[in-house]
Design brief:
Layout lengths: L1 E7 L5 E11 L2 E10 L4 H29 L11 H17 L5 E6 L4 E6 L6 H16 L3 H4 L18 E6 L2 E9 L3 H20 L3
Antiparallel strand pairs: 1-2, 2-3, 4-5, 4-7, 6-7
Helix pairs in contact: 2-5
């Protein structure tokens, strides 16, 4: 025979008593089971804390990624005045030794003139031609000889002069600008411009 009694004390605690009487071997056995159900406060609080931390992480993460991947500034490296003057000096000297009177120009990565040297006996046109070839090699980031015969459309671009003799300046994968020579045959102009770069290549190889 089974008796069941339920007692309610409040909304959080319930006590249920079951009495089971059995007749076995002339004896009466009574088994009382008491169960008490209480909310697991520790687990509930921990879950709430985890939810709050997760929400905070979702809020902060975009700002953290922005600070790492979206640096609001750009860092540039520029050649100092000593280096650029060494380049034009070596370029003019190399052509002079070959028997040519030339002008040499160096521009920075934005095409601005930063160094210029002219043999006093070179032709006046070499002044602007060397600067425009240097600008072209810096703007296009390649030797003017490589595009002179392949990109005729660029002849109409402002200040672009696709004549052999302009060479981009780049060391250790960092682009700095362009150098050009004018006054010698175009192929010689390019070799002299490269000689100017080679003059400072060892210094730039170990630059920070």
């Amino acid at each position: 025979m089974l008796f069941s009694h339920d007692y309610w004390f409040n909304s959080e605690t319930r006590i249920s008593t079951n009495s089971l009487f059995e007749k076995d071997s002339g004896r009466i056995q009574s088994i009382d089971g008491v169960s008490q159900i209480k909310p697991k406060l520790g687990v509930t609080v921990l879950k709430n804390i985890n939810k709050i931390l997760f929400i905070i992480f979702l809020i902060i993460k975009p700002f953290y990624l922005f600070s790492i991947e979206k640096d609001p500034t750009v860092h540039l490296r520029l050649l100092n005045s000593q280096i650029v003057h060494q380049i034009v000096s070596a370029a003019v000297q190399d052509c002079t030794q070959k028997g040519y009177l030339v002008s040499a120009a160096v521009v920075d990565r934005n095409g601005n003139l930063v160094a210029f040297l002219r043999n006093p006996l070179s032709s006046p046109h070499t002044i602007k031609v060397s600067q425009r070839k240097a600008f072209s090699s810096a703007s296009l980031r390649t030797n003017t000889s490589e595009i002179a015969t392949r990109r005729s459309d660029l002849n109409f671009a402002p200040d672009i002069l696709l004549i052999v003799g302009g060479v981009p300046i780049q060391f250790n994968g960092i682009f700095y600008g362009g150098v050009a020579v004018a006054g010698a045959p175009p192929e010689i102009d390019e070799k002299c411009a490269q000689a100017g770069i080679d003059e400072v290549s060892e210094i730039m190889e170990f630059a920070d």
